[in-house]
Amino acid sequence: MKHFVSQLALASAMSVAGFAAHAANTEITVAMQLEPPHLDPTSAAAGAIDSVLYSNVFEGLTRFMGDGSVVAGLAKSWDISDDGLVYTFILHDNVLFHDGSTMDAEDVQFSLNRARADDSTNAQKALFAGITDVSALDAATVVVTLDAPNGNFLFNLAWGDAIIVAPESIGDIKQAPIGTGAFKFANWVQGDKIELTRNDAYWGTHAVLENVTFKFISDPTAAFASVMAEDVDAFVGFPAPENLPQFEADPRFQVLVGSTEGETILSTNNKMPPFDNVKVREALAHAIDRQAIVDGAMFGYGTPIGTHFAPHNPAYVDLTGTSAYNPELAKKMLAEAGFADGFETTLHLPPPSYARRGGEIIAAQLAQVGIKAQITNVEWAQWLETVFRGKDFGLTIVSHTEPMDIGIYANPEYYFQYDNPAFQKLMTNLNATTDPEARTALMGDAQRMISGDYVNGYLFQLAQLSVAKAGVQGLWTNAPTQATDLTAVSWAD
Amino acid sequence: MNRNLIIGLILSTLAILAALLSFIWTPFDHVAMNIPAKLQTPNLTHWFGTDHFGRDIFSMIMVGARTSIAVAFVAVGIGMGLGIPLGLWAAARKGSYVDELIMRANDLIFAFPSLVIAILITAIFGAGAVNAIIAIGIFNIPVFARVVRGAAMPIWEREFILAARVAGKNAARISVEHILPNVLNLLIVQATIQFSLGILAEAALSYVGLGAQPPTPSWGRMLADAQTLVSIAPHLALIPGFAIIITVMGLNLMGDGLRDYLNPRTRVART
Prior knowledge:
The complex is a heterodimer. By secondary structure, chain A is α+β, with helices and mostly antiparallel strands. Chain A contains 13 helices and 19 strands. By secondary structure, chain B is mainly α. Chain B is elongated, with a radius of gyration of 22 Å. Chain B starts with a helix and ends with a helix. The A-B interface holds A 220-221, 224, 240, 242-243, 245-246, 292, 295-296, 353, 357, 359-361, 363-364, 367, 374-377 and B 31-33, 35-36, 38, 52-54, 126-127, 209, 213-215, 227-229, 231-232.
C-alpha cells in the first residue's frame, strides 16, 4: 500500500512538472523598471507606455523593426507624389480592432487628425505638424497631404505616438486600450503587472506566446533578485550593469547588450551665466573624461559620443575629438573666460544610475578644473518640474531616448535653451530634403554645429541591457524606439 | 571602572580618533576617483579596498566618521539645549498648564517615529546634512525633556529645596543651581545613548538619500551605494556596516557603563 501511494505521488508530481513545462512554452513574464502612468501612447511622453504596448497592442501605418529600420505596418503599401507632398496609403484588408470592429481609412483619418488637432495632448505633436489634410478615399485608401516635403514622414508615422486608434474606444483608452496588435490587453494590477493575451483574430503573423505578463520592478536590487530567483523570464532594460557579468557567467541566463536611441548628455542651461559663454561650455566639455564615466557609472557598457546623434546611425559623425579630455586646456579656457578661480553651479541628478553615478564622477572631474558643482538628487517628478519645465538649473544629466531627436536643438524654448538661428534654418532645410545623400550631409552639418557650439556635454550612448532566461528567443537586442516587441518571441525547446 | 565602560570607551574613542585624525591626515584623498582601480578588495595599499569609483574606503570611513559624529553631536546638542530647560520648567510648574502644554507637545513629537519626522523635515526643506541635524535634533527634545522632568520632580520634594526657597531663591534659580546638578549624571548617560541613536538616524537618512549629499562621505550612503554591488564586492557593504556597529555598540556600552559608574548604589555593590 505504502509503495502504491509513493508511486501515485511520483506520477502526479511528474504530470504537474510536465504540465508546467508545457505551459511555460506559451507564457512569458517580462520585467521592466517603470510602470506606465496610463495606457494611451498618444497622449503622454512616458516611454513606459510604449514599452508595454508598442507593436504588441497598438500598431501604426509604419513600424520600427528591432534593427531600427522602418517597414510597413497597417499600411500595406504607399505611393508618394513626385513633389513629395501627397502620400497615398493602401491599408491591409481584414484588420480588426480587439473589440471586433473593423480598422479602416476612417480610423486612420481620425487618429492622425486627433494627433495634430489644436487641442491634442500628443507628446510629439511636431511629428504631425506638416500635415495639412487627411482624407479617406475609400475604406482601404488614405491620402495624407503635407505643406512641404518631409523626408522623415514615414519614420515619424512609425513612432508610438502615431499609432492608429478607433473613435469608438478612445474614451476608455487610458485604462482599457483597444488596438489592432497581435496581443490584446487583458488586465492591469496597478503597482504590479499588466497582462496581455494573444489576439487570435490578428491580421498578420500570429504570435507564438499566448499569455504575456509585464511586471514592474523599479529597485535595482529587487531586479537582480527577481531574475536570479527566476521569478521573471526576462528583464528588459536591466538597471544594474554591475550585475551583468554574474548573469553572463550563469548558463541559465543570456545577456543582451544592444544600443538605444539614448544620447546621455550633461545638459547645460545655455541661458544661465556663465554657461551663456561658449568658452565656458567648451571648457566644461574638455573637463569631462567620458571613458571614466562609461567605466565608472555603466561598468563599461555604452559608447562615447561627441554630439547628439546615435553612433549606430549611418549618418553619425564621430566628434568626440573636438571635446577630448584635457583638464589643462579646460583650465586655460576658463581663465580666458574670466573664471580663473572657477565658479559654482548646480548639478541636478534624476534617479537612474547613469545620472546618479555619472553625476558624482562629473562633479569630481569638474572639481579638478575648479568648477564646484553642487549635487542635488531629485525624483523624476521634481526633475520635470524644476529642470525641464522650470529651467531652473545649471547642469543636469539625462538620457534623451527619442530616436532622431537632434531637432530639439532647433527649439529655443527647450529646457537647455540653445538659440541659434543658423541651426534652426539647418533643421528646416533638413526637414524639406528627401534625397538621402543630401540628408546625410545636412545631418552631419547639424551634428558639427551643436558639437562646435558645445551646447551640452556629450557623454555616451546608453546601452540597452537585457537579461533573459537562456531559452527565450526573438527579443529585441537594440531599442530603436521604446518598445518590448513580443510578437516574434518564443521559447526554444 | 567596569568592563562595559572600558570596552565602550575604547570603541567610541576609536571612532572619535578616526574622525579627528581625518582633519589632518587620511591615507588617500577621500573624493579622488580612480576608476581603473575600482572594487579592489582590502590590500596593503588600500587597507579597506576601493569602492565602485576607485575611492579609498579607509579614507572614506574616516571622513564618514566625521560626518556621523558631527551630525549626532549637534543633534544631541539641540535636544539637550531645548529639552533640558523645557523639562526643568515643566517640573518646576508641576501640574500647571505650562507643564501640561510642554509635556503634551512632547508626546506629540514623541508619537511620531524619528525617521518619519526626519523625512518630513527633509522633504520640506530639502535633503542635506544641516536638515538631517535639525530633524534628529527635534526628535531628541522630548527625550531630554521627559528624563529631566521625571528626575527633577522627586528632588523638588527634598528639604534642601525647601531651604533654598526659604532663602528666597526663585524657581528658575533653584532649577539651575540645585536641580540640574542632581540630574546631571542621568543626562550624561542619556546623552550617550542619544548620541548612538543619532549616528544610527544619520546613517538611515543618508541611506534613503536624505542625509549628507555627495561627495561628502557618509556611512549610510556608502551602504546604499553598495546595495547592488553586494554580491560582487561584499566588503563595500560590510565595512561601513561594521563602522556603524562598532560606533553604536561602543556608545551604548559606554552609556551602560556610565550609568553603573555614576550610580552610587551600583558602584558600591560592585566594589
